[in-house]
Amino acid sequence: MYGGEELIGRIAIVGDNGTGKSTLLNLITGALQPTEGSINRHGQLKLAKYSQHSADQLPYDRSPVEHLQIEYGTKFPEKDIQFWRAQVGRFGITGSHQTNPIGQLSDGLRNRLVPSFTNIHYRS
After folding, report:
1. Any idea of the CA torsion for 64, 89, 98, 46, to the nearest 10 degrees?
2. How many CB atoms lie within 10 A of CB 55?
3. Can you give the pTM of this predicted structure?
4. Which of 106, 107, 102, 114 has the alpha carbon at shortest distance from 61?
5. 28, 39 Cβ separation under 8 angstroms
6. How far lies 34's CA from each of 16, 30, 39, in Å?
7. In this structure, is the dihedral angle defined by the CA atoms of residues 71, 75, 80 and 82, taken in order, positive or negative?
8. Which residues 6+ apart lie within 8 Å of 85 measured at CB?
9. What are the CA-CA distances from residue 31 to residues 22, 24, 39, 82, 85 (Å)?
């Protein structure tokens, strides 16, 4: 959850297998249509879905900062390297971890990258 530009909270949906977590998220995102009732979304709603397999999709040959610059530099052409480092740093990726190839990072650090990339993707 965001208050202006700042992250003020997160919501996690957890539960046993087969209890409808993915179905609920697919209904919220519009990937599924309800068989009964309706789904109403706020006009300014922005969603990001993080899967436990999302980190497997990262470009292992790029650094986190390099990946952000390549993926989002066109959207934010005025931003310098310090901006990109700050985006990754907000999620606990600091120092040389920001500029080393993603493939050299631990699983824990790679899993922190996905939300940082999602965060920049949904910024206005």
Report:
1. 0
2. 18
3. 0.59
4. 102
5. yes
6. 22, 9, 8
7. negative
8. 65, 98
9. 10, 10, 12, 36, 33
Residue showing tokens 């599924």: 32
The pair of three-digit structure tokens given for residue 88, joined into one six-digit string: 């990754």
- Take residue 72 and report the two structure tokens written for it: 């989002």
In 3D, which of 63, 48, 47, 57 has the Cα closest to residue 104? 63
Burial label for 82, CB within 10 Å (0-12, 13-18, 19+), is: exposed
70-91 residue pLDDT tens = 988 898 899 999 999 998 898 8
The pLDDT of residue 3 is: 53
